[in-house]
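Memo to structure team: turn this sequence into structure tokens by end of day. - J.P.
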Amino acid sequence: MTEIPKEEYVLKCTSACAGCSSSLILRYVLKAAGPDTVLVIPACCTSVIQGIYPNTAMNVPIYNVAFAAAAACASGMSEAFQSAGKKTNVIVYAGDGGTVDIGIQALSGAFERKTDFLYICYDNEAYGNTGMQRSGSTPIGARTTTTPGGKTHSKKDLDGIVAAHDPPYMATACSAYPQDLFKKVQKALSIRGPKFLHILAPCPPGWRYSSEKTIEMGKLAVKSGMWILYEREYGKVTINGPSKAAMIKPVPVEDYISVQGRFKGISKEALESLKSQAERNAKRLSLEEKGIC
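Reply from structure team:
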């Protein structure tokens, strides 16, 4: 951890919930990016926890935009900085609702145009800012305020959609592995063109677990194979250390979901669907890493 700068760009006294992992993620994102950075933030938890105008807990410029507009705004911002001869980092920091669902059109357009920016989706698998409604990223079987009996559909394959745009760099990360996250942000910002990070952000009130267990929850997600850490750099897939170990000897998926209230009463069919989906993802990425598919 000594390689991570001591400078703080997320200041004390945010209005984040206790145990909020998305604010922890942003802390390390900004440590990797440095002060010459502009955040583009659509409607999401982060647009609230940054503070009430004219005060803010963020020590970099922030541009708050409408739910669907983040990637489009970042496209214009990136072009403007380049025209002015500046190398300012343009980073979209958006939740899964504003990425997987509402913002996916603008994201696709920006990636098709090969915009030079970093898009980060911090994924708490629901619309956290407005009360944990179901999103396209909510896992099957999970209870939300709009799926009180458990979601009946599998989550959308966001990474597969992004990969179809063939960006030079995309990766997954998790708040429980800050060194891995820090290095991936640094690498992404060293590459020109559109970059994408998909980061799991466990949410205590939404997932219904005790706030001091946020790091433990992230590690269980990775160790059970429910969240795989990997990089796709110029088409080449590399599965990262923690997930390599998990593929050899994974923690049972039941150990991950049993400590989350959102999965209380999950049906046997939904549980089997979660487990088979994790197995398919692991197999597909392993084959891609070997260059077989």
